[in-house]
Amino acid sequence: MTSTPAPAPHQQTQLRRAVASSYLGSLIEYYDFLLYATASAVVFSKVFFSDLDPALATVASFGTFATGYLARPLGGILFGHFGDKLGRKRMLVLTMTLMGVSSFLIGVLPGYEQVGAAAPVGLILLRVLQGISVGGEWGGAVLMSAEHATSRRGLWASFTNAGAPSGMVLSTLAMTATAALTGDAAFLEWGWRIPFLLSLVLLAIGLFVRSRVDETPAFLAAKAVVQRRRIPLVEVLRNQPRVLALSVGVGLAAFVVQATLTTFTLAYGVRVGHSRQEVLNALTISSACAILGIIGWSAVSDRFGRRPVVVVGAVATALYAFALFPLVESGSTALLVVALVVGQGVLHPMMYGPLAALYTELFDTETRYTGASLGYQLAGLGAGIAPVLFAEIQRATGGPATTAIACTIAAFCLLSVGCVLALQETNRRSLTERRTVQPVNAE
């Protein structure tokens, strides 16, 4: 294999800007998106579903959380279509704006006691807009970094994925600080709204950074060569249905585990005796560790391949699922921190970190935004379904049912192992290399 020539100074500048823009954009998107996750676990059941039985209110609250994940594939298709036709940068400006405005509106939305059933309906609609936004953001942000990179795609693309735990840290700190400053009563009444309102400030910063990044060289080159591009979604479904299906399976376990650690465990930890603040603190520590884990394991995948890293992570997580809940149930704050740090900071990044580069490398440039976004966001349904499924299992059985939940997590992990082994290794593949054979049309 020939060595990659050193990028020109302008390329290096644009790569740095692209990586910074992708990381910051992902951080902002997931700050808003995961802020909702924290609020759904500790606030929304009381504010928007106060007329329901507490157990049903928890299920309903997680249900609205799930709608965001259900909307994400739609965002991937919508923004992926126009991103493949018009460019990555334009779509990324739109996705960031949509997320910031939606989150701000959640912050001013009246509760059930003020407007009745209109409150949860409005909450669901805004959550859908959040889901559409984050569904379009991820694919574009990953491509912005990967298509600007001339080497070490796993490392550079991983900064987009690292934005997710960074957003979790920021959202958790925002909720924690607000709760500490306002007190429990005021926090439930109005304090929880403050972190959502701050979304407009983050939006302004993100748009400024994103405006300084050029369109990706790979897209511009493909645009110059490919004169007639059909509908990207149709092209992906027609030419790469197997790859798309396998990409969904590869990412499914990562999302199930992500939601288990960041959403379900938050509510379950409080239920088994930990204070809300203890769980939030542990989650903040584990999310900070996840940033390093995602970047580190992604860099490892540049050297040893995407498949080995994902396989080892999935198998280890399948086994760890049976230790997770006993650690949480122990009553020890230290063991709670260990449970989340090992799960979110070490094992989950092995499955999740390499996905940014892997999804980028599976599809052709002219359908890459659509293919990568759709595969990733369909896999993301696992994160929306898992907390609802687990909460319903516990409600139906009347007990913790942690063994059944651990078995479910392990099954998803083994499914991902099978799917990633069915794919070819991609870490040495050029982004300009065609994955599909194009028909030759007469001019």
UniProtKB/TrEMBL annotation:
GO terms for cellular component: plasma membrane. SUPFAM superfamilies: MFS general substrate transporter. GO terms for molecular function: transmembrane transporter activity. It is found in: Cell membrane. PROSITE patterns: MFS. It is a multi-pass membrane protein. Residues 18-428 form the Major facilitator superfamily (MFS) profile domain. Keywords: Cell membrane, Membrane, Transmembrane, Transmembrane helix, Transport. The keyword Transmembrane applies. The keyword Transmembrane helix applies. The chain crosses the membrane at residues 30-49, 55-79, 91-112, 124-143, 155-178, 190-209, 243-267, 279-297, 309-328, 334-359, 371-391, 403-423. PANTHER family: SHIKIMATE TRANSPORTER. This is MFS transporter.
